[in-house]
Amino acid sequence: MQEKQINIAFEQYSSIEELLPEDRELAAEAIKAMAGSYAPYSHFNVGAAVRMSNGQIVRGANQENAAFPSGLCAERTAMFAAGAKFPDKEMVSIALCGGIYGRLTESPATPCGACRQVMAQYQAKSGKPMSVIMIGADKVWKFHRVDDILPLIFDSI
Ligand code: THU
Questions:
Q1: By alpha-carbon position, which residue is closest to atom 6 of ligand 1?
Q2: Inside any domain, residue 157
Q3: Residue-wise DSSP of 71-85
Q4: Going by DSSP bridges, is the β-strand pair 91-100/57-61 parallel, antiparallel, or unpaired?
Q5: Which of 17, 18, 75, 106 is catalytic?
Q6: Model confidence over 77-91: pLDDT tens digits?
Q7: What is the domain count for the chain?
């Protein structure tokens, strides 16, 4: 038996102002995207923004539904819209944020497992790393590839 470890490297910033200009722009788009959230049940508004390889940014926000499984997270709303709009372009980066009644969480909002799996698929489709930026009021995290937030990704088919 060998004991193994998985180490995850990520960057922490004190605010989106500290990010590189492209990331800062994407983070600002994710914050703006929260305005499109429809969350009458949880009141947890989430915004996401995807940067494509052609420089275009596509926004998404969570959409809830009385038949609960029918709703969708902000990240998948953004990625599916981006995939449908720019099927031949790669997703380079995604930023997300959220909070009750639109008030940003202090710690960065983190994507659910289903959204991570969808990120993994689009990263695999592009063949290049897709970075993930998680925004909170007190700090911001940047992960350079989806593998870092979904170790041992299922990508066997
Ligand atoms: N939500 C997202 O939009 N993204 C996530 O990664 C986690 C959760 C949404 C779903 C639901 O509308 C609300 O947040 C509360 O769970």
A1: 111
A2: no
A3: -B-HHHHHHHHHHHH
A4: unpaired
A5: 75
A6: 999 999 999 999 999
A7: 1
Using CB distances shorter than 6 Å, the residues near ligand 1 are 39, 42, 44, 46, 62, 64, 71, 73-75, 111-112, 115
Listed residue (46, 81, 80, 82) closest to 63, CA to CA: 46
Residue at 142: amino acid letter: K
H-type alpha helices, the chain: 21-33, 74-85, 113-126
CATH number, domain containing residue 50: 3.40.140.10
Q: What is the pLDDT of residues 89-124, one digit of tens each?
A: 999 999 999 999 999 999 999 999 999 999 999 999
Active site residue 17: no
How many whole angstroms separate alpha carbon 87 and alpha carbon 10?
29
Closest CA to ligand 1's atom 3: 73
Per-residue tokens: 1: 């038996």
Place of tokens 């689009």: 122
pTM for the model stands at: 0.97
